[in-house]
Amino acid sequence: MAAFSRIGGIARRDLLRAGFGSVILSAAGLGRSPFFSQAGAAPAAKPGRILVVVELSGGNDGLNTVVPYGDDAYYRARPKIGIRPDKLRKLDDHFGFQANMAGMERLYKDGHLAVVHGVGYDQPSFSHFASMAYWQTAAPNRGELYGWVGRLADAMDPEGHNNYVVNIDTQQSLAVRSRGHVPLVFDDPTKFVRSGFADESSPLKLLAARGQGANEAQDFIYGVSRSALQAEQLVRDAWTAYRTPVDYGLVRFGLERVAALIAADFPTKIYYVAYRNNAFDTHVYQGDVHARLWTYTSDHIAAFMKDVARLGRADDVVLMAFSEFGRRVQENTSQGTDHGTAGPAFIIGQPVKGGQYGKPPSLTDLNRGNLVYTTDFRRVYATAINKWMGYEDPATILKGEFDPLPVV
Prior knowledge:
The protein has helices spanning 2-5, 12-18, 20-25, 72-77, 102-109, 128-137, 148-156, 201-209, 216-241, 255-263, 286-310, 377-388, 394-398; strands spanning 50-56, 66-67, 88-90, 96-98, 113-120, 165-168, 184-186, 270-275, 317-322, 343-348, 355-357, 375-376. It is an alpha/beta fold. The chain has one domain. Strands 1, 5, 6, 7, 8, 9, 10, 11 and 12 form a 9-stranded mixed sheet that branches. 51% of the residues are buried.
């Protein structure tokens, strides 16, 4: 253990940057000291409120999600893949969800789903990697080091209480990268265990068994090692104890795992969940594939909201869903759509004032065949940060002034 005695005086966040957190915790990030052991509850501007962020990777085709069936330009641009009015779940005399989105239609008609039109940003990227990074950092074309969720966690909880952020994924998202928090990251709760090489096993066990360190750096290392052992068991226990009569649909991409932690009263304030593997990248024969994707997504989100209500937490949870970009207005020759710009975002929950927000983009006044965005995506984030989570100065998180929407 001599190596640890030589790192006295190093700040805890510097240890994290240097990778000590990952060495101890493998792919799963944990709190900065023993699980649930810090004195006092994690501070929050609005105690009890939970934000769930759903990332639909691949660039969802917004025009075939919230379909502008009242605009003839839509059918002129999409003679083959345009969805006809009789195949839609109509929201009004201009827009409709595709037929497979029964769950989200119920949420909308119950007044708990807000559609935000034309969401995008200046100088858009058509690269999945770059555009998703811009959304994850809320800093287009800047190369920001930390994610917007991570910066929000730092601002709302400067002391870095344990597991303020949970990321349901196989690896940590840039969105949750933080200066002062180590997000809890896992995919399958039953397999959530520390991993390492065989020769690392004994040192890891010794670290977890240590008491007080000789300095702050050692205290931190020993603390997070104990947290690793405790938290992995608590996550597995929460999942084992979780029972629900709610059907989460055919493709369960993570919201049922969020519900299990909420049911177990985890201290998490922000959950980040991804529908992964560029699923929404529908370049070829889009119709059936896109319809199936929205069957799965709509069913899963609606089930989660129903389950949250069953748990008595409907007033405490708001979900926000987005994709890194939309698709081009014109269908391509493969009966699909290519990478585009603006698209809809969704804000869902019992506290949400449902309806449609933002100006729908024109289908004819285009920029090189692409929609011109009408709502900066950081307004959606500002809504979540300020109106829902209650943080008074979203400009410090978003590095600019963006007016929240009157959704919550």
